[in-house]
Amino acid sequence: MRMMTFKAATSTAAFAKVKAELGEDAVILSNKTITEKGVKSCEIVAAVDSSPVSLGGGKPQRQTKEDYVESALQHGTSWQREWSQIKGQIMQLMKPQMDLDLLSPKQKLAVEYLEREEVNETVLTHIFCSLREDKTRSIVHALETMITTQKFDAVQSPTKFQAFAGPGGSGKTSTLVRLALKEKKQNPRARICLVTADGGRGKGRLVLKHYAELSGLAFREIITRDDFHLLQKEAHQFDTILIDLPGLPNRTNLAEWTALYGLAGCDDLAIHLVLNPFYSPRQFERFMEKYKSEQLASVIWTKLDEACTFGALLNMAFASGLPVSTLSYGSGLKNSIAPATKEMIWRLLFMRKLPNGDIQP
Ligand SMILES: Nc1nc2c(ncn2[C@@H]2O[C@H](COP(=O)(O)OP(=O)(O)OP(=O)(O)O)[C@@H](O)[C@H]2O)c(=O)[nH]1
Ligand SMILES: [Mg+2]
């Protein structure tokens, strides 16, 4: 057993060091906040079984380029990739049966349109099957059950903690600030607390602190799990607590992160996934895996004004089953966000019309 102590400004940074040094199999033995010269930081003690990996024992052999390729082919196919290969093969088998001439001309046109809008094959197959049952069925009817919307209403929500997760730069901090300011405007007496868990990254923290001070909102910081426990203790003072999560390091997934900071066991927490429509299909697959969590409550789509197609909204809704709560379509904090409705999503999909009425080229 090899045991090591790691110190960093935040748990995220300390955890990244654990993974880099001890690898994926490291076990966390303790995780606490320490204060040195008045500055709070995180200390993690982690251990890993140090028995030799090589079956042959002795000195590990130097790997050649061929070894790397061989090893990638042998071990790189995680169950995800295998599943996506199987899915691809099923789709290939389905394709000859997906004869669009079996649909009415109007239905065929709609399916072809959605294909151009980058709706993926899984979703198209589902739509095709639904339309084939009834030649008079409209495309909107077929799509109706595939996507749901749910307004983000933090103050009215029975869930006190609302966290925002998503890839780096997707618009988490801006969305949180926009929603907080909107809530405050609608309900000036609402007791709103803004929380940054983005300690290591100066910008998001400063933005939140600035808007909290400007709008008379409370501001807190989570550096380690102790801070989240403290926040839970004072939660009764607030109507809603909005938490800005950091973009997670490459190898860390949301479940690991929430476990590390003590958020995972909190049943008073909803996490909203902030995404942009223009990521590649492979990236979406990766995000599905990285951000998988039972605490996920909705998807927030941002940067709609920078997208050319909107098929991703449908693909994600179908794959995750999550409702869409909010749409954002501008870089400013004002007039750039709207609660999602199905009509807005149909207009995005079929007319490329943003919630403010602008048409995307
Ligand atoms: N065009 C456009 N820009 C947006 C939108 N939402 C956010 N942005 C911009 O995207 C950039 C990143 O936004 P942030 O809110 O800082 O993103 P983040 O996810 O918090 O980023 P990290 O904390 O670094 O992971 C900023 O310049 C925002 O102004 C949007 O809907 N449209
Ligand atoms: Mg941020």
Automatic annotation (TrEMBL):
It holds the Pfam family SRP54. Residues 159-351 form the SRP54-type proteins GTP-binding domain. One of its GO terms (molecular function) is GTP binding. Keywords: GTP-binding, Nucleotide-binding. One of its GO terms (biological process) is SRP-dependent cotranslational protein targeting to membrane. InterPro entries: P-loop_NTPase, SRP54_GTPase_dom. This is GTP-binding signal recognition particle SRP54 G-domain protein. It comes from Pseudodesulfovibrio piezophilus (strain DSM 21447 / JCM 15486 / C1TLV30).
